[in-house]
Amino acid sequence: MATDTSRVPVPGSEKKAVAGAQSTGLVADDERIDVTVRIRPRTAIQSLAQGSVQSDVLPSQRTYLSRDEYAASHGADPADIAKVEAFAKAHKLAVVEANVERRSVVLSGDAKSMSAAFGVTLHNMEHEGGTYRGRTGSISVPADLADVVVGVFGLDDRPQADPHFQFKVQGRSFAPRAGSASFTPPALARLYDFPTGLDGSGECIGIIELGGGFRPADLKTYFASLGIPAPAVKAVLVDGAHNHPTNANGADGEVMLDIEVAAAVAPKAKIAVYFAPNTNQGFLDAITRAVHDKVNKPSVISISWGSAETNWTAQAMTQFDQAFQAAAAMGVTVCCAAGDNGSGDGVGDGAAHVDFPASSPFALGCGGTKLTASAGKITAEVVWNEGTDSSTGGGVSTTFARPAYQANAHVPAAPDKFVGRGVPDVAGDADPASGYEVRVDGQNMVIGGTSAVAPLWAGLIALMNQKIGKPVGFLNPLIYGQLAGKGLFNDITVGNNGAYHANAGWDACTGWGSPDGAKLLKALGG
């Protein structure tokens, strides 16, 4: 091996401190740290873009890779894994796990050894929002690993993402349960004409959670109230996380919203909830665990957590995007909430920002609307916007170039004139004022946010997968291609999210609009 005097930075690993954060001292030498080292694929990941996942063809004409086939063609090379294991041994780090399909090696050791291995200085950091173990600058590896290691995650453990849900607030111009002010998920499914006679049998919906938990007793009570059998829910624990419910004011609201919405739409689908720590390492590991899960085999994944692109390292966004490309190659749809803080996405600098991971070109970005209904029919649907801290995300990526499938969507340029990927792709009811009736920690409540839209779409996709008998997979090329303009969506033409306004066709507030489920299924071949 090359000596540590010849080191190379890991591209895109540069990191800044949280705004206003100050060091309170170096991390203790003996503090235990686990990191995930991502390894290059044995075949260039770009080759996936030339395959069926980018094709504007119906699911019946697509050829997907099985999880085993994907691991064989695009997993890590065992020789590369061996190089990382030798590097770990030289730096007195233990190999906890090595995984070919997930292209990852998990290493464990003390802070002193980790700092030396990856060329970083670790500090205990403190800011208004809390404390974290942090680093600044780049991570580096020995020169002979420069082409092998494409990402290192876990040295810095700051919270990475926010859940995109909001409770209905009292004192606005609506009553908590009045008329059509709120909806059960099955009621919304009927309003959006989800296909009937289907229940998601044989499908698995994967849900990513970075905190909180669920109580089986709540699920039993909730689904009994809907007259639906309680779903089969399995907790998959990642990186030491747990199904840890606390109270309704925390992340439990996100977890229960996601499960209850998805399962109420597709009650016979298996629900696999991947719990992970809220760090870039935990988030990425949960996604790769779900995408490559050979036991539960989710055909659709719902992600309701995210943060503005400016809060991510380039290495993280690249690896998330590659994980979504892997999902597309295997026919797995990934639904991501577009954010709840308008076109500024909570950054607060007056500029427009877009939320990640919804901004990945391989994600189905899910924006939000405000819905009004009467007598079982939609009477009005507009962009969700109750102010900058309660409105749908959406905009244009400054990281990901505009994908070919959006060439004719009239996506505006990003604020820096970058020709970027437009977000969202689709939408659904999200305003807490027209929110979802759910049960969290023994309380019945109404919750909104684009968090609800991702599992709503995930449930619809599970129904379509069941009917078609083959996963619909990566939908974006289809809905921007041969299915565009076919009346498969309720086009939202009224409202704005700050910097962007709704208009006929695609827009950076609600994408193509909310679904007409039966028409979409028929158009996809069901």
Automatic annotation (TrEMBL):
Keyword tags: Calcium, Hydrolase, Metal-binding, Protease, Serine protease, Zymogen
Cofactor: binding comment: Binds 1 Ca(2+) ion per subunit.
The keyword Thylakoid is assigned to this record: no
Region (Disordered): 1-23
Catalytic machinery residues: 254 (charge relay system), 258 (charge relay system), 451 (charge relay system)
Record-listed Ca(2+) binding positions: 491-492, 505, 507
Keyword Ubl conjugation applies: no
Any Pfam family hit: Pro-kuma_activ
InterPro entries: Peptidase_S8/S53_dom (IPR000209), Peptidase_S8/S53_dom_sf (IPR036852), S53_propep (IPR015366), Sedolisin_dom (IPR030400), Tripeptidyl-peptidase_I (IPR050819)
EC number(s) reported in the record: 3.4.-.-
PROSITE patterns in alphabetical order: SEDOLISIN, SUBTILASE
SMART domains documented for this protein: Pro-kuma_activ
Cofactor list: Ca(2+)
Residue ranges of domain Peptidase S53 in the record: 182-526
CDD domains: Peptidases_S53, Pro-peptidase_S53
GO molecular function, one term: hydrolase activity
Class in the EC hierarchy, top level: hydrolase
Coiled coil (UniProt feature): none
Gene3D superfamilies: Peptidase S8/S53 domain (3.40.50.200)
Family membership noted in the UniProt record: Belongs to the peptidase S8 family.
Name of this chain's protein: S53 family peptidase
Organism of origin: Variovorax humicola
